[in-house]
Amino acid sequence: MRKINHIIIHCSATRADRTLPPEELEVIHRRRGFNGIGYHYYVRKDGTVLGTRSFEIVGAHCRGHNAHSIGICYEGGLDIEGRPADTRTPEQRSALHQLVTQLLKQFPDARLCGHRDLSPDLNHNGEIEPEEWIKQCPCFEVAREF
Fold first, then answer.
1. Quick check: 121 and 14 in contact, CB under 8 A?
2. In-domain check, residue 1
3. Is residue 78 domain-resident?
4. Percentage of residues in the chain with pLDDT exceeding 90?
5. Which has fewest Cβ within 10 Å: 43, 55, 63, 101?
6. Is 128 in a helix, a strand, or coil?
């Protein structure tokens, strides 16, 4: 088993008025050169949690952190205009909480964070601030929520 030191939450950057079935997500990731969906879990708008990659397989979801992390992606993350927004449904919120709780029991030493929280600290002050985020993903404050 790989050593897991991060559980990283992502969004699929899908507009609130659209869906992204896992088959389409897989096509997108394969076009990027991945060997399937890069996340270990995908949480659909209806709260369905899909295991999309075995823990034993290194993810393809956060450059520089894949070797020792588990990636979780929720379907959504953009409002109907295509702007970053927390679009999680109540079902997704519940499913994410259950999944994260399970994973933190299994990997108690892992740091839970959002993808944007692993952006580089450009001003070297020890804090990743919004102006340093490479992207908005997952479009909500993971530390506050969990």
1. no
2. no
3. yes
4. 78
5. 63
6. coil
